[in-house]
Amino acid sequence: MSWRPQYRSSKFRNVYGKVASREHCFDGIPITKNVHDNHFCAVNARFLAIVTESAGGGSFLVIPLEQTGRIEPNYPKVCGHQGNVLDIKWNPFIENIIASCSEDTSVRIWEIPEGGLKRNMTEAVLELYGHSRRVGLVEWHPTTNNILFSAGYDYKVLIWNLDIGEPVKMIDCHTDVILCMSFNTDGSLLATTCKDKKLRVVEPRSGRVLQEASCKNHRVNRVVFLGSTKRLLTTGVSRWNTRQIALWDQEDLSMPLIEEEIDGLSGLLFPFYDADTHMLYLAGKGDGNIRYYEIGSEKPYLSYLMEFRSPAPQKGLGVMPKHGLDVSACEVFRFYKLITLKGLIEPISMIVPRRSETYQEDIYPMTPGTEPALTPDEWLSGVNRDPILMSLKEGYKKTSKIVFKAPVREKKSVVVNGIDLLENVPPRTENELLRMFFRQQDEIRRLKDELSQKDIRIRQLQLELKNLRNSPKNN
């Protein structure tokens, strides 16, 4: 009997990445040069938002998706922050509402007008102050309307109820800067990675840590819940400084189910999971390629499919929600790749090759839609509910009718769990102290330069005055 290799059957083994033509890209964008480990990009079915390089504060562009091509240098910006913008996220249920966070310690909610911006926007519909340090992450709750999570460099995660414009809960279990936050399908659990090298699964309403992993062999950077499989996937660095991924059981974080080394590069690995196709995408910061895998329920759990390759390195990646994809082209995922060197945003479509042009139900199951399953009061009272699903065959063009109404409030102190967040400031980190020191050194150097220029000018004036007095006319 002759030997035959065993092939694993998968409908996604031939998925390929297709780069949009140049006229369908967004060109001439001054992408931020900030080295913070975020994507600096957010996209939904109507708008693309990109954090830009700017002086005297933080700003980002909001461009309608149909407005491709070259963007004018004087294109209107959202520019109300006093510090660099570190993260932006679109509201999953109201497509013209976007949240941003900044080094100025604030979180702001912006309402983008129909058709995009016509002039610079400086006034947010809601300004949220509760962190005592810069805010590095914002995340919307996946099933509840107007619930926003923010993580700051004060080691706290605040839960904001935007109906009242106040923080209603505080998660205070971290001992260092929070690197990443991820929700499970119904939003009842929050997974976080932290600079203290620990992976945590937290019950967000109580702030109770359900599981904790002290990752010594696998230093975690990013985490993502794998849909409803009760598993987590993390990306990080091994003890030999190679990039690796690890799969965990969310109910037992004592040991990872599997660990797999990827390569020896140094860029941060960003994981993206598609719960509908059970596909995992890995994109490295500074890399040009995107690897993709299929996640299974049995060993070896992780099956390598293919790799999209490009010579241009990516600074970050925005991801289109499912209801914004082109189902007629069998598109199952779409990235928006930030190429800093070219000032270019490049759409990359992941396509399942099919000959038939009819709707492919096997690759487009029912998916979370644009309607919230819960109100803020319901979720805060302890109710959990799965997301409301929609079919991409009939309902992918439906728009949500929810309107954001900003509360009117005047309050200077922010008290949560009996603690005034603006008064309870943690000690400064070593990096913050170094940053302050270098800023002061730069300021001293600048003042010295100004003083020396003034001294030179004074000497010139004195010499001119002396020459004037010694001239023959004065004699």
Automatic annotation (TrEMBL):
Protein name in the entry: Coronin
Coiled-coil features, chain-numbered ranges: 444-471
Stored PROSITE patterns: WD_REPEATS_1, WD_REPEATS_2, WD_REPEATS_REGION
Keywords of the record: Actin-binding, Coiled coil, Repeat, WD repeat
GO molecular function term, any single one: actin filament binding
Family: Belongs to the WD repeat coronin family.
UniProt-listed PANTHER family: CORONIN (PTHR10856), CORONIN-2B (PTHR10856:SF17)
Gene3D superfamilies per UniProt: YVTN repeat-like/Quinoprotein amine dehydrogenase
WD repeat extents: 78-120, 128-170, 171-212
Boundaries of every DUF1899 domain copy: 5-69
